[in-house]
Design goal:
Keywords: Signal. This is Phosphate/phosphite/phosphonate ABC transporter substrate-binding protein. This protein is of the alpha/beta class and about 325 residues long. The protein is built from 10 helices and 11 strands. β6, α4 and β7 form a beta-alpha-beta unit.
């Protein structure tokens, strides 16, 4: 069963196995197979120790990007560190879509992951994902903004100019790639997909950015942290695009593990993140241009409150039993 199916933007995210309803997102929307006795909005480890899993090989996946092979190299040093801390073999699992990543964890094939901002609530509620950290700057600051970008020669200089044009989103579960821009365009500019502009789904922020630069899309809603990294790698140039909208700051990718890992193993995974030395590492080289320099502790209940508020405003609720 795939968790996410293709959707129509005007109907809000329709999920295969996750029925979107008109009921606002509640304080806890965990699937019934999970328990949350401590009220942190994430799934507790099973009370029955026989249901704990202790795999010989841990499988790790980073949020979908255009070229997963690039990030396999970026994460290789960190995964070797995790192997030393946990005593387990750690395998990088390249995923091409949010749906594939969510389904892999739901099916038990994925143990540790970084889910993008908008997918994190789906992962928490439907797969048992327990986020505990995110990347941050040296001063502890974190976050990114949603930007709507276009080409300098597109004839679009302000949001109202999107009327009658094509706007790319990334995926239905993406915060900056779909949910936030959908809510903001409607609330601030009275612009509705299919009515005022033609929506497309590119599959990733990388694809949306390249689609704008290569004239596949007139404009795109993207996470500027991804844009900054692509500029730093010379994939695109700052002269290739212009920004016509920038949002408030959102939390970045949430990193965590599946709820039914043996608690001692889950604790070692947390230690691997917090003990990793960034200085001179491939992670530092890749993420320094978007400001990240360390992993900091987070809680889903606190740090994803703004994202749940957006879901609430969109009347999104998940029924993923």
């Amino acid at each position: 069963m795939n968790i996410i199916s293709e959707i129509k933007i005007t109907s809000l995210p329709l999920l295969l196995g996750l029925a979107v309803t008109s009921t606002a997102l509640q304080a806890s929307d965990l699937a019934s197979r999970f328990t949350d006795n401590n009220g942190d909005l994430t799934a507790d480890a099973p009370s029955d120790v026989k249901k704990w899993i202790d795999p010989d090989t841990l499988v790790f996946a980073y949020t979908p990007v255009e070229d997963p092979a690039v990030y396999a190299q970026v994460w290789d040093d960190f995964l070797k560190h995790m192997e030393k801390v946990t005593g387990k073999r750690v395998q990088f699992f390249p995923v091409q879509s949010n749906a594939a990543q969510l389904e892999a964890m739901r099916a038990g094939r994925l143990h540790v992951a970084g889910f993008n901002t908008g997918s994190t609530p789906v992962a928490v509620n439907c797969t048992g994902f327990v986020p505990f950290t995110m990347m941050a700057g040296k001063d502890g600051s974190f976050g990114y903004e949603m930007e709507i970008i276009t080409r300098p020669d597109s004839g679009i200089s302000k949001i109202d100019d999107i009327k009658g044009r094509n706007l790319a989103f990334t995926a239905p579960t993406s915060n900056s790639g779909f949910k936030a821009p959908s809510a903001l365009l409607a609330a601030e500019f009275n612009l509705q997909a299919d009515q005022d502009f033609t929506p497309s789904f590119s599959g990733s922020h990388d694809n949306s950015i390249l689609g704008v630069v290569n004239n596949d899309y007139d404009a795109a809603a993207i996470a500027n942290s991804v844009l900054q990294r692509m500029v730093s790698r010379d994939v695109v140039s700052t002269t290739d695009f212009t920004t016509i909208y920038k949002s408030q700051t959102f939390p970045t990718t949430g990193y965590g593990y599946v709820y039914n890992l043996k608690p001692e193993l889950a604790a070692k995974i947390q230690d691997a993140f917090f003990s990793y030395q960034w200085a001179g590492s491939p992670l530092e080289a890749e993420f320094k241009n978007s400001g990240e320099a360390q992993f900091i502790p987070i809680t889903y209940k606190k740090h994803w409150d703004v994202v749940r508020t957006i879901d609430n405003a969109l009347n999104v609720s998940y029924n993923c039993n």
